[in-house]
Amino acid sequence: RGVVLDSQGPVLVSEPRSSVEFSNDxxxxxxxxxxxxxxxxxxxxxxxxxxxxxxxxxREMLVNGSMYFLPFGAESYRHDVHxxxxxxxxxxxxxxxxxxxxxxxxxxxxxxxxxxxxxxxxAGNTGVLRCEIPAFVKEYVAVTSWLKDSAFNIYPSAExxxxxxxxxxxxxxxFSVTPADAHSTYRCRTVHHVTGDTVESSSYARxxxxxxxxxxxxxxxxxxxx
Length: 226
Known about the structure:
mainly beta, 41% strand, Immunoglobulin-like, 21 strands
């Protein structure tokens, strides 16, 4: 009598998270694996179901089923490759299984600068300083901290019991402002979460503290309450 081997359709063991971002100067390796009997074959499909093919010096398909996006120069960016939806497929003679949609986005490294500007505030009120991030990198850049007087670091916190409080969105609050607060300087620090680049504002910001009886207050009141 012959021996009957158990057959099993493919089951995905690992696949990438639903969103993969990487810098053009690092590239990215995306893994997918499955088990079954017979051993499944791994293929990659585009979001529309068409097969993914290797492109010399751009995208490679490895024998272990991984897909490799090579580092590339800005001039080699391809929207259909570097900003596209992919899916992993495992198949054998029993059947096939399709993985989740994976949005791949390559980010071309670009230098950027951030700025801070003086903020007007009435004495006794709360001053708000903002870190201005260029639009072309805004979705990838976050404010990590503020530097007061080039010596004191202020980081995000859940509670605001101190004089300074940095919001998770990056703004810096200075509570119960007094004229003395106008002497301090502030800079913001940022990080690009894809490239890892850190950038600090080249300029400083100050609080311009005003009072109701001052002529300065009258000149800036339209700005304050627009």
